[in-house]
Amino acid sequence: MARVLNPLMSGEAKGSIGGNTYSAWRGLHTVRRKPVPARRMRTTQPKNRSLLGFLSREYGTLSDGERDLWETYALNHPHPDRFGGTFILSGQNAYVMLNHTALRMLGMGKLQTTPPTDPPPGSIYSLAVITGITDPGDIDCEWVPAGSPAASDYFEIRIAGPFQSPARQEVHSRFRYVAIVTGNQTEFTIAGLVEDTWYWVNIRYFDEYGQITAWHTGQATPKLTP
Length: 226
Description:
226 residues, four-stranded antiparallel β-sheet, 3 helices, flat
């Protein structure tokens, strides 16, 4: 229970009760409450956990030769970290990472037992995200590809928002999936957005093996109703 000083006057309380924590901070009496997390069954977390468990079990069924190939792939493909450096994945990490992307986006038919031998044939050179020109609530995305994107590969599109004003930096935890389009496409319209607000848009190229390129980002406000 919360300990109350001068209970008849309720002048000060310290402790927790009913999910609220009462305390003093810099001479001020405060009450805090921890945010209630979203129900996991309403998010993608159960699906992702199930997929990770499935892939971990599948890696155990690979032959020694196949696992050696994944170890070699991991050694030759350092993974970027959040501090501007790189680190080396294990063979199992590389297997799970690539297959997770391929299966999540393209379905179980894309499960691969050996790593790809070639890098993605394409990527994104530049991205333009602008107010839509057709219908209210639209944002138009147009990108210039680099390399030789294949029709059998894909672009993944995500969005974050709405926000009340343009931001200096995108918030990665707020992005949500919008669509995937084929690798020979260079434009896409995101419709049904909240007018007079701002959105971040992320687009990246990935091949049928689950190899991904860097995100390209832009922000814009949807078209207003005339």
